[in-house]
Amino acid sequence: MTRSNGSIDSMEMNIEDNFSKDDDFGRRPYKRNRGLDQEEVWTTVGRKGKRFARSIDVDDSTRVREDFMEICISSTDKLPKQFMLAKTLKSENIQDIIKVKYLNPYKVILHFSKEDSAEKLLNSKCFNENGRKCHKTFEINQPFGVIKNIDLGLSEEEIGEALTCDFNIIAVKRLKRRNSLNGQWEPGESVRIGFKGSSLPSYIYIFDTRISVSPYVYPVTQCSHCWRYGHSLKMCPSNRAVCPKCGDHHTNCEKTSYTCNNCGGNHMALAKTCPIYIKEKRIRELMAEFNCSYKKALTIYTPPSPPIYQPKDFPELTQNVKDKEEETIVEDTNKIRPNLSSYAAVTIKQSDKRICKKVKNKITSNSSTD
Ligand SMILES: [Zn+2]
Ligand SMILES: [Zn+2]
Ligand SMILES: [Zn+2]
Predict the structure, then answer these.
(1) Domain boundary among 140, 173, 206
(2) Engineering a disulfide at 292: which of 57, 74, 255, 296 sits with its beta carbon 3.0 to 4.6 angstroms away?
(3) Which ligand is the nearest neighbour of the Cα of 268?
(4) pLDDT per residue as tens digits for the range 226-278
């Protein structure tokens, strides 16, 4: 695969760049669909109605998760408030709701303890007409794949028109990549394709030529304000800036000993070696591999097993211990040395014997020839 300028990693692209700069959506023939607002897929509702990723909520990650279905009802008109909403749900015989949370007057999140009841809402006429729509927030309904090596000059519209597939194509988006020379995001050669259905096709056709499709892995978004994962600066629920070096509440400092505010480790918050980053990355890979939600991927995720021996199992030797060790070695070699000298002595004696013999023989032969 040939790659043009810069170091290219379109998969690593920030969601913020991926979604928010997408002003040309309207020009595309593809219907703008919910699948493209996937950021919602693994976000949950924070204080003051702001969304933040469940993945980065430290308290949340240590808590045993309730298993529930999350459905979002959105409406072009203001939704009825809690009392009237409950009444409507009752009249539609929709049960097993364990939580209702308004994001704003036009959007409400419902948690269901039973999948059947959630399905009932998804299929209810009342909540899917007159500007109202329902969708699952935890499930990825439309899988995304990536095709590579797509000429830079082609528009998304042109690419879309040339593509055919057994599955319905609902979105075509050229991914951005970061130019390592100037750090700027620019159009890349990888194109993300959204498919209708629950699985990803292995192949797609460009002008009837078959090319392979690889699963699209969501990038790990990191906020440049609080340095948590799973949301961008724009969506940050925190009012206070966090230092990427020491984790305190200031924007930056000159400290050289680092404390990661995500894991507490001695690295910067941006470090790709941070175990929290590695975990978030792995979860997104699982999401792509199994075409599942963040929540589901979290259940599949297995943390890396710690090494059998930790550095703490081998403590630094103190000077006393070091001296003792040294003495023991000297003692040991002294014990060995007598054996070595006696061996040397034997060897010398044997060699002496051989020399003596040779000299004796020489003398005898000389005296006989005289
Ligand atoms: Zn943030
Ligand atoms: Zn600091
Ligand atoms: Zn860390």
Answers:
(1) 140
(2) 296
(3) 3
(4) 999 988 888 888 889 999 999 999 998 999 999 999 999 999 999 999 999 99
The ligand whose atoms approach the alpha carbon of 267 most closely is 3
Return d(Cα 300, Cα 50) in angstroms, integer. 28
From 140, 166, 185, give the residue that closes a domain.
140
Structural domain count of the chain: 2
Which-ligand-closest: CA of 249?
Answer: 2
Q: Which amino acid is at 306?
A: P
Q: Domain holding 78: CATH number?
A: 3.30.70.330
How much distance in Å is there from the Cα of 264 to the middle of ligand 1?
A: 17
Strand locations in 197-312 (E):
203-206, 209-212, 214-215
Q: Which ligand is nearest to the CA of 241?
A: 1
- The answer to the question of residue 28 being in a domain is no
Distance 253 CA to ligand 2 centre (A): 4
Q: Which residue range(s) make up the domain with 242?
A: 233-300
The pLDDT value given to residue 93: 93
Interior/surface letters 195-208, b for 16+ CB within 10 angstroms, e for the rest? beeeebbeebeeee
Going from the Cα of 98 to the center of ligand 3, the distance in angstroms, rounded, reads 34
- Please state, in angstroms and rounded to a whole number, the distance separating the CA atoms of residues 225 and 12: 19
What residues are neighbours of ligand 3 (ion), with CB under 5 Å? 260, 262-263, 265, 274
Q: What stretches in the chain show pLDDT beneath 70?
A: 1-67, 138-142, 307-353, 355-357, 359-360, 362-370
Per-residue pLDDT tens over the stretch 195-233: 877 788 999 999 999 999 999 998 899 999 999 998 888
CA of 276 to the centre of ligand 2 (A): 20
Burial call 120-142: b when 16+ CB within 10 Å, e when fewer: bbbebeebeeeebebbbbbbbbb
363 lies in some domain: no
Q: How far is the CA of 273 from the centre of ligand 3 (A)?
A: 7
